[in-house]
Amino acid sequence: MSMDLEDQSEDASPLQSLAVVELVRAAQAGDRDAFGLLFERYRSGIVALAMRRVRNADEAEELAQDVFVQAMQKINQLRVPEAFGGWLRRIVHRMAINRLTRRQSAVSCDPSVLEATCLSRGDSPDNGAVDREEAADVRAAVARLGQLDRQTLQAFYLRGQTLVQMSDSFDAPVGTIKRRLHVARKRLAKEMEVSQAV
User: Fold this and answer.
1) 76 and 17: one domain?
2) Is 60 exposed, middle or buried (CB count within 10 Å of its CB: 0-12, 13-18, 19+)?
3) Claim to verify: residue 127 and residue 168 sit in the same structural domain
């Protein structure tokens, strides 16, 4: 199908008039233009559904992008092309649950929550005070870092994102994310040294 498209002018877009079923079949055959049209047709509805699930406009946009990336990667698993819309909605639902679960675990791992609620039974009040002071020093050092370093550390340590997830959210290769994480850790260590020296 894509070879036929190359012979036609850019203004005449035969894909525009195709039904969803035909677009899905074309996308399953590897036609990226067909998948692009599916994206255009379904994008606003998927963003609206994502918004109802995550209740945050930026996260809804991000979730919708993730849904379409997943759909593009797994479109060959869709056996009934007529069910494309419902299939997309199921992906939104599943990915929204995953995102909300990660968000909840990030909140429960927040250092301020941990320091307030997670003293082990063997800790003395003095040890708890020292731990809270160290946690405050770490938060202050992180706050002094540049925005990219701060976002990188928060994504990895607080939100528990994997390198692949960070690669997707930062729109950068995994190798770049590894380097950023390494650099951010070094800068944080240096900030901690500076604050302890003062």
Assistant:
1) yes
2) buried
3) yes
159 in Cβ contact with 150 (< 8 Å): no
- Let me know whether 84 and 116 are in one domain: no
Tens digits of pLDDT across the chain (198 residues) = 443 333 333 444 566 668 999 999 999 999 999 999 999 999 999 999 999 988 888 889 999 999 999 999 999 999 999 999 999 999 998 888 888 777 655 544 555 555 554 544 445 555 556 566 766 777 888 888 899 999 988 888 778 888 888 888 888 898 899 999 889 888 888 887 766 555
Looking at the structure, tell me whether residues 62 and 91 fall in a common domain: yes
Q: Would you say the pTM of this structure is higher than 0.70? A: no
- The secondary structure of 30-69 as a DSSP string is T-HHHHHHHHHHHHHHHHHHHHHHH--HHHHHHHHHHHHH
Same domain, 20 and 100: yes
What is the maximum span of the chain, computed from C-alpha positions, in angstroms? 77
Same-domain check for residues 86 and 118: no
Indicate the number of domains in the chain: 2
